[in-house]
Design brief:
The chain is of the alpha/beta class and about 280 residues long. The protein folds into 2 domains: about 180 residues, Spore Coat Polysaccharide Biosynthesis Protein SpsA, Chain A, CATH 3.90.550.10; about 90 residues. It is about 40% helix and about 20% strand. It contains 8 helices and 11 strands. Strands 1, 2, 3, 4, 5, 6, 7, 10 and 11 form a 9-stranded mixed sheet that branches. Helix 1 runs parallel beside helix 2, helix 6 packs parallel to helix 8 and helix 7 packs antiparallel against helix 8. The longest helix is centred in the C-terminal third of the chain and has 31 residues. The radius of gyration is 20 Å and the shape is globular. The chain starts with a strand and ends with a helix.
């Protein structure tokens, strides 16, 4: 690619030195890379400068190692607002973009009249270099490419996502997969990872009424749990067997996380009532 792709790529970093170089190497064809950093203390910023990335702070503070894990939408918005291009793509610092994604994005953003202004893309998981072709959470789609002029915005604290005016804009779908590479540490200590995110998620949960608590905190969580137990997981192994399929241990722990969240939600509600 002789000309840079007219699209900004937003990446959040915090002590990402071990993975960032590979990540940035995969997006060097883009016209702008924006690193939004939490005041890393390793070599993250030096690597970012090597690739000519624009660097901004996640927060207006010089305190080292500031985590945005419970404030993702706010920080991703800050990253997006620093972009120079209308087309915006965001990714994580421990992931890389395969060439097919780069070429597909190029064909979209260089089209004078693209069919859509907001695109979702399928995702898949690699564990220890092994492609997981089948999992209970598949097909898993995420919006990662959009025009900022649409007003699309980030929402959500721990698990952020894109919201937009669905009456005004239709959602396009990319063909290429966004690949999530699980590091060995995550695979080995998977429950600790799931447990930590469950606790963060419940910590930021707010219910504006008792009815909302019953629906979102209890009913929806039980529905998800029994959906995995009675349908998603049995169907997965019945249909695909165990070859190229998510190992049962991980499927079980993903399901168990929702029961753990239910426990935490009830525990938090009881504490709130006692204080009130």
């Amino acid at each position: 690619m002789s000309e840079k792709i007219p699209c900004s790529v937003g990446i959040l970093t915090l002590n990402s030195g071990q993975t960032l170089r590979k990540c940035l190497e995969s997006v060097k064809a883009f016209a702008e890379i924006i690193i939004c950093d939490g005041n890393s203390t390793d070599g993250t910023l030096e690597i970012a400068r090597e690739y000519g990335a624009k660097i901004i702070k996640q927060y207006d503070s010089d305190a080292p190692n500031l985590s945005c894990v419970k404030d993702k939408a706010t920080v991703r918005t800050r990253n997006m607002e620093a972009a120079s291009h209308d087309w915006y793509f965001f990714m994580d610092s421990d992931d890389t973009l395969p060439a097919e994604i780069t070429y597909e994005i190029q064909s979209i953003v260089q089209n004078p009249e693209p069919p859509y202004s907001i695109y979702r893309m399928p995702s898949r998981i690699y564990i220890a270099g092994r492609l997981i072709r089948h999992a209970s959470v598949y097909p898993a789609y995420q919006i990662r490419l959009f025009r900022r002029s649409t007003g699309a915005r980030f929402k959500g604290e721990v698990h952020d996502h894109i919201v937009f005016d669905k009456k005004k804009y239709q959602l396009g779908e990319m063909k290429s997969f966004y690949n999530f590479y699980w590091p060995a540490e995550r695979a080995e200590h998977f429950w600790a990872y799931q447990k930590k995110y469950a606790e963060w998620e419940v910590e930021v949960m707010k219910f504006d009424s008792f009815q909302a608590f019953l629906y979102w905190g209890i009913y929806r969580r039980l529905r998800i749990f029994f959906g995995f137990l009675l349908w998603r997981i049995p169907r997965l192994y019945f249909r695909y067997g165990f070859k190229d399929t998510m190992p049962f241990r991980y499927e079980f722990l993903v399901m168990w996380q929702h029961l753990y969240i239910l426990y935490l939600v009830i525990k938090k509600r009881r504490r709130t009532l006692k204080r009130g």
